[in-house]
Amino acid sequence: MTNVRSDEIRVSEIFGPTIQGEGVLIGLPTVFVRSGGCDYRCSWCDSLHAVESSYRHEWHAMSTEAVWQEIVRLSRGEAVMVSLSGGNPAIQPFGDLIGRGHRNGYRFALETQGSIAREWFAELDVLVLSPKPPSSGMETDWQAFDVCLRMAAGKPQTVLKFVVFDEADYAYARAAAARHPHLPVYLQPGNHTPPPSDDKDAPIDLEGVMERMRWLVDATIEDGWFEARVLPQLHVLIWGNKRGV
Ligand SMILES: C[S@@+](CC[C@H](N)C(=O)[O-])C[C@H]1O[C@@H](n2cnc3c(N)ncnc32)[C@H](O)[C@@H]1O
Ligand SMILES: Nc1nc2[nH]cc(C(=O)O)c2c(=O)[nH]1
Ligand code: SF4
Ligand SMILES: [Mg+2]
């Protein structure tokens, strides 16, 4: 990884179109731009290859133009949904890419934990805020989170997405959602994974995911939390923790 200029985007991988596996856009053909680098270290992060500096040698500093050309190549010029993920994509200068894509009919979603706000959040079509529950080992800075919402200025469709492993995570999601009663909520069972792999047979704890999925459905129903939507990570059910799908 060479030095990154301030207008360059640090990219871990660009892949797709595949289906969006999570949350509000589930099932929709999507190109993913996964940026490298994160201000968090979630204990169960399923994308450590875009977080840990030991993977830096795989990351590339790319111009907006080069990222755009790769999106166009992968999508064969068809205006698809583009998901900006990571790592924390809020670290990167994505504003020009979003403008470039919009002029060509593409749409942009951002996945972020809500720790870093950018002015270009207001240019997004979909903002997925995914604050991290206790099992992650991270502490949520709600002030920083609120700045993210302010930056979005009500323009993108904005949703909350929570990973839930246990009761404490569920309680956290419930309380966090209550702070923002106008935001749609998506709950997804946590997935205990080994390190990411190119191996198509890379094992995942599918039984554990399904067990937590059943538990999460029961919890929301018993609790009368009828606004919450419960969804598994569809791509994990289909491909496990394989990279680039
Ligand atoms: C890898 S993160 C990258 C974007 C951003 N850093 C974030 O966390 O929102 C993308 C999504 O995957 C979720 N995720 C990460 N590890 C997971 C796991 N082990 N099980 C379920 N979801 C996970 C995150 O909570 C987030 O919603
Ligand atoms: N198919 C698919 N859907 C996803 N939704 C969120 C992802 C992510 O890692 O950000 C992801 C991913 O990596 N692949
Ligand atoms: S915030 Fe997202 S990318 Fe960063 S460590 Fe947590 S799950 Fe992984
Ligand atoms: Mg993922």
What does this structure look like?
The chain is of the alpha/beta class. The protein has one domain (9-239): Alpha-Beta Barrel (TIM Barrel). The protein has helices at 64-74, 95-102, 142-152, 167-179, 206-223, 234-239, and strands at 9-19, 29-35, 60-62, 81-85, 107-112, 126-129, 157-164, 185-189, 228-230. The chain has a nine-stranded mixed sheet. Strand 7 (157-164), helix 4 and strand 8 form a beta-alpha-beta unit. Helix 1 crosses helix 2 (95-102). It starts with 8 loop residues before the first strand and ends in a 6-residue tail after the last helix. The mean pLDDT is 95. Iron/sulfur cluster binds next to loops.
Write down how many β-strands occur, each being a DSSP E stretch of 2 or more residues: 9
Structural class: alpha/beta
The order of strands across the largest sheet is 3-1-2-4-5-6-7-8-9
Query: On the 0-100 scale, what is the average pLDDT?
Result: 95
Count up the helices.
6
Our count of domains comes out at 1
Stated plainly, the CATH topology is called TIM Barrel
**Biggest sheet overview:** 9 strands, mixed
**Global morphology:** globular
CATH architecture descriptor text: Alpha-Beta Barrel
Specify the CATH homologous superfamily. Aldolase class I
Low-confidence stretches: none
Distinct ligands, ions and cofactors found in the model: S-adenosylmethionine, the ligand Nc1nc2[nH]cc(C(=O)O)c2c(=O)[nH]1, iron/sulfur cluster, magnesium ion
The top-level CATH class is Alpha Beta
| Rg value | 17 Å
Order of helices and strands: EEEHEHEEHEHEHEH
Helix content: 25-40%
Bin the strand percentage: 15-25%
Binding site for S-adenosyl-L-methionine: 44-46, 87, 130-132
Binding site for substrate: 19-21, 34, 85
Cofactor: S-adenosyl-L-methionine; [4Fe-4S] cluster; Mg(2+)
Keywords: 4Fe-4S, Iron, Iron-sulfur, Lyase, Magnesium, Metal-binding, Plasmid, Queuosine biosynthesis, S-adenosyl-L-methionine
